[in-house]
């Protein structure tokens, strides 16, 4: 289905440290906004929480962050065509339900989809659920059409206990998901730290998010590292206002480093999206550690790349939760971002296209 496009201008604010000079700030190409009221086959479109590029098909898989409240647990196929420095078309090619292990439909709140990664060589997908109806996080592997799903056994440290003192905190589980370039490793990163690892980010403290590496053949974890998120950058204007910060997406580069997207929203200030280059080289493998003290281990190195801040140049930056590298455009690597509109009339599904020049991608 071809949609009318709302084209918005976008400018970048960049923050590149001396250590990251090899990573030039991306060049903005174009942006498309889809109305929250749009539906497909009677199902509301939105909640886009992750993208994965299918090079063979020339389109993207886009998972919907929908707990079976607006339609089935699902992902979409989306084609984005750019020409002459603009997005020429954005086509929603189809919608595919993600079925539970055993072939049943997920019940209401039975899954909370956040990440998706295509393993084209093996004709399958990996996807993550932040929580089920019991607030337990899940990782799944399934056929490319979302059927024949199998759950992946997680280390006990991730499983919440009754009093909330252990495991993934509610709605702060697996936000970042991607495959290594060779398809041998699945990367899964929590939005914020486990309860016993210090919990969520605040104005005063960072959060020790765990990055888990899994073997894609055995589906067994093979390493875990700590990625320290930023503190919440700014306090809300009102004492009882909302503020958060955490990992919203990851992308695995060819050299083994990760692009990590940190998303902050603060009442009265809006969104502040920061992109980092993260490296696990030399970091402490915390596999088997039920509880981690960030002061006693070496976390992953992180280097600022660039940022997108709500209000910069009068622009509205929304809830960016997706990153994927797509086809070449005029000899340059493209990077597509997408925002989760939370099915709210006050937000929008935005697809924002850049070109990037990162040596590790070539």
Automatic annotation (TrEMBL):
Record carries keyword Signal: yes
Entry annotated with the keyword Transit peptide: no
SUPFAM superfamilies in UniProt: 3-carboxy-cis,cis-mucoante lactonizing enzyme
Domain Phytase-like positions: 44-343
Swiss-Prot/TrEMBL keywords: Signal
Residues of the signal peptide: 1-20
PANTHER family according to UniProt: BLR7070 PROTEIN, PHYTASE-LIKE DOMAIN-CONTAINING PROTEIN
Protein name stated in the entry: Phytase-like domain-containing protein
Organism classification: Bacteria, Pseudomonadati, Pseudomonadota, Alphaproteobacteria, Hyphomicrobiales
